[in-house]
Hints:
Structural class: alpha/beta
Largest sheet: 8 strands, mixed
Amino acid sequence: MRYYRSVFISDVHLGTADCQAAYLLDFLNSVHCETLYLVGDIIDLIAMQKRVHLPPEHHAIVQRLMDIAAGDTRVVYIPGNHDEFFRKFCGQTVAGIELKTKVVHSTADGRRFMVCHGDQFDQVVRCSPLMLLVGDRAHGILLRFNRWFNAWRRLRGKPYWSLAAWVKSRIGKARTFIRRFELAALTVAEKGHYDGFIGGHIHSAGFLRSEDGLYCNDGDWVEHCTALVEQASGRLELLHWSEAPMILTSEPDAPHPDVTGNARPTLDPVPAAFVEQANSLVS
């Protein structure tokens, strides 16, 4: 059993064939923490309107989360855009799980992080409706290939490897979108006087440190099988969990050279009203 002060997971997409449920269930059975944050898109209610895929592993994950909440771990559920229906219940506690729109997480070393799913930044990181439609369809096809590819790897006795993530990392527009998203989240956190941002949404785990804040993305359990964890000291790490669990990276100590001083890219201005709205919802 691995012990952490806090664990953050998001973008599980239960109810779809793309969810890497077996790895997630093994992760939940292998870690213990004081606080578990479910940072959105845990259940894919959008996909389930077209087709429901709920094998026994998916039911087991829901049961395991309720068991964790019934124990000595605080479980906080922050709904995302694919499980937005649950936002109407924010402020309530269901089966021991607290539902929140956004939260402020305080690390053991005294830092304050704004925690939300991240779809809120879609209105700042602009993309045309046509590109969103094409991207969503292409992403679905890519995930289907990812399932087939990893089924073939398992037959050959090889560990999980994300074909989808490898392809996206080589698409320039995808990298540009990710960086714009990171900067938008960092900007809102900085203007809200937080030490950083923690979220998911874009299925791209990673850190980005600026001179004034730290962006953290916990990734997903569709392509990457990753979680963000906080050690007892307050230090943050990214874990990959499959046949061979490993620490992917730890939070950087120094600002990234691409976002320091004059090197920081200029985004479309983040509206002051949006910053105020985003921070007013944090409780």
